[in-house]
Amino acid sequence: MQTAAVRPSTSVRIEAGSPVDSAKAPVVSIPPYLEKHYWWAYIHPNAIRFFDHQPIINFILWGNYAKLRNAALAEMGDELPGNTLQVACAYGDLTPHLCDRVSAGGGRLDVIDIVPAQLRNVRRKLKADAPVRLLNMDSADLNFPDASFDRAIVYLLFHEQPVEHREKTLAEIFRVVKPGGKVVIVDYAQPKWWHPWRYWFKPVLAVLEPFALDLWNNALQTWMPAPWSKTQWPRQSYFGGLYQKVVITR
Fold first, then answer.
1. What's the structural domain count of the chain?
2. Is 19 among the domain residues?
3. N or C: which end of the chain has fewer CB within 10 A?
4. 226 domain residue, yes or no
């Protein structure tokens, strides 16, 4: 992967590790944990058609979708010049809003995901001339040079990853974001003791999101590479602590 020049692409296209948009482009293998635990949510075409609607996503997040999206975008800034990385696709309208800010700053957005169907789903939500590349990549093995990006956003991804994949993803993000760049993470966290969802939602997560409870029991720093694992990054809680936003300065 060549280092990206700061200029908008002429079309939104799906790439596979190199600048091609072809049916012959190689597809990155989907990790076994994703096939086993999340086929019903992210891989099956019917799942994508069902879940990617604002009312459904908002319901799943207990009415907090807009609040979490806006909190993440506010940290990114109104105008985003240079290169921005979105690590994994996200249901809802996060990416179109992020793309608007990238366009306003004259920059470019790279969105990576391991599932080609997720990239195709994002493409349908974007304008044809959006300054976006959609890249079929594993977040734990980013095919970018060191210090390629000015900033990155990771929206509700880490609770879906087993520990080894989570650690590799964080290491890759720290590698590809430039020194001084910002990384914005939104994900689950342990709710307060008084939260009405705390006790009955925990067994639900254990069944449907088997890795999510890691974020209930540990701070995100647990999986960050040294020396960043020892830093207390700015953190804000939402909805009684069930969600968190962590802002990292690379």
1. 1
2. no
3. N
4. yes
SS3 labels along 136-177? ECECCECCCCCCCEEEEEEECCHHHCCHHHHHHHHHHHHHHE
**CA–CA separation, 115 vs 135, rounded Å?**
10
How many other CB atoms are there within 10 angstroms of residue 179's CB atom? Answer: 8
Angle subtended at Cα 241 by Cα 114 and Cα 210, rounded to the nearest 5 degrees: 40
Amino acid present at 180? G
Domain that holds residue 110: 32-249
Q: pLDDT tens for residues 24-49?
A: 455 789 999 999 999 999 999 999 99
163: in domain: yes
Residues 157 and 87 sit within 8 Å (Cβ to Cβ): yes
Contact (Cβ atoms closer than 8 angstroms) between residue 159 and residue 33 = no
Burial, 26: exposed, middle or buried (Cβ in 10 Å; 0-12, 13-18, 19+)? exposed
Q: Are 131 and 103 in contact (CB under 8 A)?
A: yes
State which H helix or E strand residue 108 sits in: strand 108-113
Tokens 């001339």, residue?
Answer: 129
**What is the distance of C-alpha 134 from the center of its chain?**
13
Specify the pTM.
0.90
Contact 151, 177 (CB under 8 A): yes
Q: Can you tell me the distance from the alpha carbon of 161 to that of 38, in angstroms, rounded to the nearest whole number? A: 10
